[in-house]
Amino acid sequence: MSKKVLIVSTSLRRDSNSDLLAQRFAQGARDAGHQVEFISLRGKDIRFCTGCMACLKAPRCVIQDDAAAIVEKMGAADIICFATPVYYYELSGQLKTLLDRANPLFSADYAFRDIYLLTASAEGDDASDGPVSGLEGWIACFQQARLAGVVRGGGANDPGDMAKQPEKLAAAYEMGLHI
Prior knowledge:
Layout: E1 4-9, H1 17-31, E2 35-40, H2 67-76, E3 79-85, H3 93-101, E4 114-121, H4 129-139, E5 146-154, H5 166-177
Parallel strand pairs: 1-2, 1-3, 3-4, 4-5
Helix pairs in contact: 1-5
C-alpha cells in the first residue's frame, strides 16, 4: 500500500551531508512505490514560536511564514523523515524551530505514525544521542506516533563527506525502502 512520505531536510548548507542521507531515504521510499515529497528548509522563512498559544484555539499558527504550509503537510503525511545536521550534539536550530511551530498538530487529527531521523555530524555516531532524544521528546506528545528508525551519520564534516560513507547512504536507502 502506497504511503504519503514527507522528508524534511533541515540543513541550510548546499550539498550537506544530512541532505545526502535524505536523498537516499527518498530514493528508497520511491523505489518501494510510496508518494514522496521532499522539502528543504534552505531559503524558507520560518520564525520562532512566540508562545501565544493561539494554535490551541485554531488549528493553525497565526504567524504568517513558510512553517504553516510545512506543518500542514506534516499533519497529512503517513510518514515523516527529518534530516538534520548535528550542532553541538543537538538538533539543528531550524528543525527545533519547525518542531515548536508544529504545535497545532498536537490537538489535530494527524496522519503520521512513523517518524524517521537522519543525522550527520563531524563527530562519531554517538554525537546523535542528543538529536535522537530531542526528537523523541517531540514524538512523545503524539500518542499514535513513534520513532521508527534512525541513521546516525557520524564522521562527516565537510560538504559531501557522506558520499565517502557508502554504508550510511545504503542504510538510509534501505530504511526508506522498508517503511
